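Justification of resources, computational component.

The compute hours requested in this renewal are based largely on the per-chain cost of generating structure records like the one below. Each record pairs the submitted sequence with a full structure-token output. That output is archived, and it is also reused by downstream analysis tasks.
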Amino acid sequence: MILPIVAYGDPVLKRKATDITEDYPKLDALVDNMFETMYNAYGVGLAAPQIGLPIRMFLVDTTPFADDEELTEEEQKSLEGFKRVFINPKITKEEGEEWAFNEGCLSIPDVREDVFRKPVITIEYLDENFKAHTETFDGLVARVIQHEYDHIEGVLFTDKLSSLKKRLIKGRLSNISKGKIKVDYRMRFPDQKKKR
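The structure output for this chain reads:
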């Protein structure tokens, strides 16, 4: 089932999410619905707060990035078929020199800005079967994970921009929260309280 994606301005996007337990109701259906919602919106990651749930869970499928011809063959291979569910994750280490990449977000449509992040992360998480993992990721995979991880910490990519950049996009962000934007996927706007 395709769920509406919560738009910029909704308080759930600024809340630090809480851990869940193995008996979380209908978790399998939630994971399926989140993947379906993400694919419908042509996203590569989706966090639970983006569908209105303040829980520490996000999912990632970087396969669409693998088609980018500007990437090396090795980078394309690392992105192809990388599909994971992260439950109660904790980034334990971020390493390397920060690099900029143009990021966007399904909750903030039509706004893209360069965001600086470290290139290598180590993360502890549970998968959809509540099996524990500790893994290290780099490059674009690490970046997508960091972006989604920020969501469960109540942080948006726009929070990482300079005050000048924030001022420049303030009007566009305001329009998004009011629903004054055209999107080709279902969204829930805080100032309208209606679904599109």
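The domain at 5-188 is CATH 3.90.45.10 (Peptide Deformylase). DSSP finds four helices and nine strands in the chain.
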